[in-house]
Specification:
The structure is a homotetramer. By secondary structure, the first copy, chain A, is mostly helical. In chain A, about 60% of the residues lie in helices and about 0% in strands. The longest helix of chain A is centred in the C-terminal third of the chain and has 34 residues. The radius of gyration of chain A is 27 Å and the shape is flat. Chains in contact: A-B, A-C, A-D, B-C, B-D, C-D. Chains A and B meet through helix 2, helix 8, helix 9, helix 10 and helix 11 of A and helix 9, helix 10 and helix 11 of B. Chains A, B, C, D: Its main location: membrane. Chains A, B, C, D: It comes from Piscinibacter gummiphilus. Chains A, B, C, D: It is found in: Membrane. Chains A, B, C, D: Keywords: Ion channel, Ion transport, Membrane, Potassium, Potassium channel, Potassium transport, Transmembrane, Transmembrane helix, Transport, Voltage-gated channel.
Chain lengths: ~300, ~300, ~300, ~300
């Protein structure tokens, strides 16, 4: 299952089938269908994307409304009809996607291929296996399908900045999370020993759940320490959690600040040398023309 | 409905009526009234502003106190009298504003014009339409009227810095919010499926409400997971929410830090070239005099 | 009531009585007492400070333990004796302070003079006016007396850094707090209208209390929205509060970061010119020697 | 009890026994055992480390599962057998460690020596002293043993960065914590006086516990103010706590940001002069070769 992003290559004639990860058909109705479904540089392609987003959102609204008992009682029948219409449309779309690519298996095993399947399967399964009815709400994962279209939007640069900040901090975050895990495991066990099942700390997992509730400052209050010693330990944990909260914030703040303040330099794509300023036009080291500064840089 | 800020132009004689968005009358009693109500460079104008702030705050105190059952029982009659006095005064003020400007319709449709109307309407409506009595507390929106006077204060620069930091980060914030929305929708549905109505997760909107409660670390505790799987998912969500909390903080911190540290430069208003230092007096590129450095810069 | 910090001038002979805000006696037993009580450069003075900190902390422990019903039942008599011993010792100390300074009235009206009085008064008042017994716990304010000694410690520089960061941000903080106040007032009123007394929102102040609970992500859960509309508004508020939380953090982070990264420069005390580097020894503008770089800079 | 980190010196022949804090045996089976247990540069040594991590994690899983009543009822017998197996293996390992070092007492008193003992003691104690059965969960501290192996991992640099950020801020953190302690003590006492035992504020420690719950925005909701004055004070505290939360975050953010942005310089190990850039190869002041730039720098 690989994340294969369809490139937005222009539909030029010729042997560029291998440019698209799922394989673009060379000609005929499959070629036309491909351009409508997988590309968005034609009027029909754009319309297809917009109708699809509309259908996904409408189907989500139906799923959400259907979960409300009073609305289900009043419009349950209508919702069933709508749900089957959406499922049939998404099934048709899934088949069309399979048919119009050169490598259907590769599409079916891609992340979006799996999500496309998951978007229609629950409705069929709920009919065949009555016990799986609860799973029908997995349909909410249809939301993920919207990412396919979002991916192509202008916001990708911002997503990229967020992702890069997280990626650059991945080791700090791993260290931080492992530290938090060790603390909540030890603290949860300690509270299980101190407070015991009588005060709601039924076992170590419950104690760890409570420790996470407390360290993250969520504090539901469904389980609370009742003994003096338990409250003292809880106080220490809250102060500790409060201080620890500063660490992820500090990590991400420092990343964002560094990205904003760091003097931005460019790489030379010819010789690989770094450190060229944003206003340089040619590489200082090899004289090759530097790539143009893009808007999102 | 446009945000038209009355400029504080000096009341010089002549055809500067068009300088004020609502139109300043040329002479006569309307001109005098205009200077008192819309301008604050005369003794009467300043007094008018101060009395108005006093009336607004007093009327808010009455609204708040009147909502307390015991105080309402004791002073309900007095509060009704006071409320009607405030409403009549604000009505008179609204009429005076309408009368003394050249373009009353433009004023009536401006943001502050609408707020001025909303400040008096509820009291009248509560009499005419008894069912709308609950709406009477919309009067608390009178608070917004204070902004009219705050607008002219020295704190505008700080408001500006906050606003600019938010504006500069608007794309990052949008991406962040859309990410949070997707997570709470999926997590809320998941918890609805796992915990079900028996544990308080009555429908998907309730699940989403709970997910927001948890992700933001508010944790009311009115709905809490009871099953082991539910608690495990909740633990993941809390840690996720904790980490996610770092993102908006990091975005705003980076903005503020960049604003503080970035070497401040000025634009040349003549040729538009940028990068002049705070101590430069003439444009390096065209020789024109640079605008003076203002205190708030 | 002015904050008069006793300077730590060396006890040189001569007419430096006016150097100490409360007036240092010239000679005799009052001079000796003054050096022990108000100064800490002698062995006796240091011992006095240490004994005083010990007494204050011991008296606090008694106050705290005495509030616990079971301990009060067992040791109530001992605590009463201890409390009176502490009160008598602090009374003696207060009288000694009054006696040994040249300007006792000035000391009595200073911040620390008032705290010294407040430290002993509750015990006497609890005897004279039985109804004021609850006030006896005001004794916990004795804790503030420790600041007198802390003030002289090496941590003053860090206190200064915190204070400066807050002071530099005071306008941003004021704008932020006024914004929060307006939001919680409007939101609290809105929830009072939507949920009403039936769901625990008894009046507008209760609504505002709930709004603050929610915006700050404390979320006690003693009052929670029950209606769908109320929960929707609460969700918006939580996300808003979450984002707003980023603002004070961002303000303080930016201050701290700027203090750390800003190239540190010094003022010339002779001509007032700024911008001298930390390694400069003489003023570039007037040639005067620059003040030495202090450790805390 | 000193933190003695075993160095990873190569097992070269000769008198380097004194290089290892616990003393490496010169030859024979003890030498072989030492290399397996304390070093990880041989196949057997690496295998030993991996098996040990596996055993520690498996024993933790048993401790956690055994605390769940239903699982304990079903597999209690199996868990007892497993627990004794783990305890015996860890005991053997502890004895082996004692036997194969030159200075067993030094190892026994080191931090890891004590943890190794604490990892096996509870199981034996639970047999000998039935009343200490609760203490058996101290076994969860076995988790700390994993640090011994983590210590040698590549993540040490990140741990170091976190630690350095905290260490550099230690004075600011101390000042901050002392400020928080004073505020929660005074506020807790105040709420005890205002709300009293009738509303759950049984004594001053309970009040302080509540104040910490509120200031840290955890807000369990097991104890909440019921009076108007109490709610007003609580509102002030929440806003104060909200603002105060910004301080530790700001401190850590500034540290992280400074570490990222500060132009990195190196010390000359020969003459001690500072400020050499990352690309300098020789000291500007004494001409000595600078130490190579390490990966983690």
């Amino acid at each position: 299952m690989s994340i294969a992003t369809p490139t937005r290559a222009a539909p030029s004639e010729g042997s560029d089938a291998e440019l698209h990860p799922y394989g673009r058909p060379a000609a005929g109705w499959r070629r036309k269908l491909f351009r409508v479904i997988f590309e968005s540089d034609t009027v029909a392609g754009k319309l297809f994307d917009e109708v699809l987003i509309g259908l996904i959102l409408a189907s989500l609204v139906v799923v959400v409304l259907d979960s409300i008992a009073s609305i289900h009682a009043a419009y349950g029948g209508l919702f069933t009809v709508l749900e089957w219409s959406f499922t049939l449309l998404f099934t048709l779309e899934y088949i069309a996607r399979l048919v119009c690519v050169q490598r259907p298996l590769r599409y079916a095993r891609s992340v979006f291929g799996v999500i496309d399947l998951v978007a229609v399967l629950p409705t069929y399964l709920a009919i065949l296996v009555p016990g799986l009815h609860a799973l029908i709400d997995v349909r909410v994962l249809r939301l993920l399908r919207i990412f396919r279209i979002f991916k192509l939007s202008a916001y990708i640069a911002e997503y990229g900045a967020l992702g890069r900040a997280l990626y650059e901090s991945r080791r700090k975050i791993f260290v931080f999370l492992s530290f938090v895990m060790i603390v909540v495991l030890i603290m949860g066990t300690l509270m299980y020993v101190v407070e015991g099942p009588a005060h709601g700390f039924h076992n170590i997992p419950t104690g760890v759940y409570w420790a996470i509730t407390t360290m993250t400052t969520v504090g539901f209050g469904d389980i609370t320490p009742k003994t003096d010693l338990g409250r003292f330990i809880a106080s220490i944990m809250m102060l500790l959690g409060w201080g620890t909260l500063a660490v992820p914030t500090g990590i991400v703040s420092a990343e964002f600040t560094a990205q904003k303040l760091r003097p931005r330099t460019r790489h030379c794509t010819a010789c690989g040398s770094d450190g060229h300023s944003m206003s340089d036009r040619f590489c200082r080291d090899c004289g090759a023309a530097l790539p143009p500064v893009t808007a999102t840089e």
